[in-house]
Amino acid sequence: MWRDGVLVAGKDLRIELRSRVVLNQVAPFSVVVLVLFALALGPSRAPIAQAAPGLFWVTLLFATVLAVQRSVAVESTEARDGLRLSGLDPAGIFLGKTAAVAVELAALEVLLGAGVLLFYGVHVRSVATLVAAAVFGTLGLAASGTLYGALAGGLRVRETLLPFLLLPVVAPVLLAGTRAWQAALGQGSTGTDPWMALLVVFAAVYLALGVVLFGPLQEAA
Amino acid sequence: MSYIAAGYAIALGTLGVYALSLVRRRRRLEALAARVERDRP
Amino acid sequence: MTVAPWSRRTTLVVRAVGIAALVSVVATLWLGIWVTPPDQVQHDLVRLVYVHPPIAWVALYLAFGTAALASILWLWRRTRSPMWDRLAASAVEVGAVFTALTLVTGSIWGRPTWGVWWAWDARLTSTALLLVMLLGYLALRRVPGDPDARARRCAVAAIIAAVDVPIVHFSVVWWRTLHQGATVLNANLSPTIHGSMAWTLLLGFVAFTLTFVWMLAQRMRIETLSQQLEGAELDEALQERWAEGAPAAASAPARAGAAEAAP
């Protein structure tokens, strides 16, 4: 399973390196969203700074939808069948695609994080919390996204259906991530423990769910 | 008190309408099924 | 392929459940509005407790739980049967109605209690998210295609959403309780209940549960019929359209054809 996962992850990432869709399209989209939020809430720094953690995570959620769409679109229907018939462990395929999406999102987050810190002028208290929350949040987003991506994969209405399906389910990640980042930026009065726990649980649950359900999902009629 | 009346009315009313729509849909389909059975060569 | 009608026993059971549901709902209404006393804190507003929590329970636990369980039973090879798929879909649709009503009754209760039509209270927020998830399932269900593939997709979607329910619940509850200064809304929607109020509340739970079960039965029957009659429904609609288009010419042969086919 792990070896198949590495294989698939490598394939997806190599495609990304060559086509640079995430880099050239999803990243600028995310930056634009950050700017739009600033336009909506600004021009004074205070409300923007206060909303910064939330805005980071909301933008990340939108970027996840795009990254997952791309991850699914990379394979045509024939290629998807090919993947299924190739004998690769479906759990491995799931983990591989999830890993690829996670890596792409991570790269995006570095950019977004820098953007947020720069544009919104916030001061960091605990980098470790920021990173930890981002890591586990990303894993959860990538796992649930890949699962839904496979679910809606062959459907023509995928573009409109995927966000509608995915976003409500990952709302807890948004909640917890925002709170954790607020604590890390010295805002808000809540500790980070319950939120980090939630992010870890979410990631674990959806990774496990994906490993279990990806196979049955791929069984074609 | 009017809030309570509104609450009960909306809740029970909606459920009632939905229930009636279910019964109507079912009857229509049962009738269609009977027709298909009858017309079967 | 013949569509078997409900057996006589099934018809009787469903009818009995329906009647029991109707009677208990009316009884809850009567007891709730006229017989039980007003609350010390909320006065008459407490009467909505006989409606809102039972409906919420049916929506969030009964409907969702049924859908999730049925989906698992469908996905698991050993217990797979089209009935589970129908049960899941029915539970989601009826559940969506109940969930929407949870939000509406919650909002109506909140307005005089809190002064606002909507509040980011833990229950309302998580219920709103749940409603969107249910609507997503229903949208997924509408996508045309092979019924088996559709059942598979929907089963997985239901499980993904069901697993999220407790996570959403905790995250939103922590969001509210750990949040400093969120306290216009301290007045809780859950009063202390005793005496005749407790019995009426119990009756309310029973009444709406029976209603849910009855609706589930109806919806499942509709699903069975509709799946097996898919072709026939389309044919009938087409016939109607053609008859409209050229009344004199078309309807005569159509009628003649039907007369021939009928015994």
Order of helices and strands of chain B: H
Radius of gyration of chain A: 18 Å
Q: Which outline of chain A best applies?
A: globular
Q: What integer is the average pLDDT of chain B?
A: 87
Quickly count the helices of chain A: 9
Number of helices of chain B: 1
Q: Report strand % of chain A.
A: under 5%
Major sheet of chain B: size, sense and barrel closure? none
Fraction in beta strands of chain B = under 5%
Explain this structure to me?
In chain A, α1 crosses α5 and α8 (171-184) packs antiparallel against α9. Chain A is an all-alpha fold and 221 residues long. Chain A contains 9 helices and no strands. Chain A has one domain. Chain B is mainly α and 41 residues long. Chain B has one domain. Chain B has one helix at 2-39. The longest helix of chain B is centred in the middle third of the chain and has 38 residues, at 2-39. The mean pLDDT of chain B is 87. The longest helix of chain C has 33 residues, at 82-114. Chain C has helices at residues 8-35, 52-75, 82-114, 122-142, 147-177, 196-228, 230-245, 247-261. Chain C is built from 8 helices and no strands. Chain A binds chain C through residues 144, 147-148, 151-152, 155, 157, 161, 164-165, 168-169, 171-172, 175-176, 179, 188-191, 194-195, 198, 201-202, 205-206, 209, 213, 216-217, 219-221, and chain C through 75, 129-130, 132-133, 135-136, 139-140, 143, 145-146, 148-149, 152-153, 156-157, 159-161, 163-164, 167-168, 170-172, 174-175, 178-180.
What's this model, at a glance?
Chain A has helices at 2-19, 21-41, 45-73, 77-85, 90-120, 127-152, 158-169, 171-184, 193-218. Chain A is mostly helical. The model of chain A has no long low-confidence stretch (mean pLDDT 84).
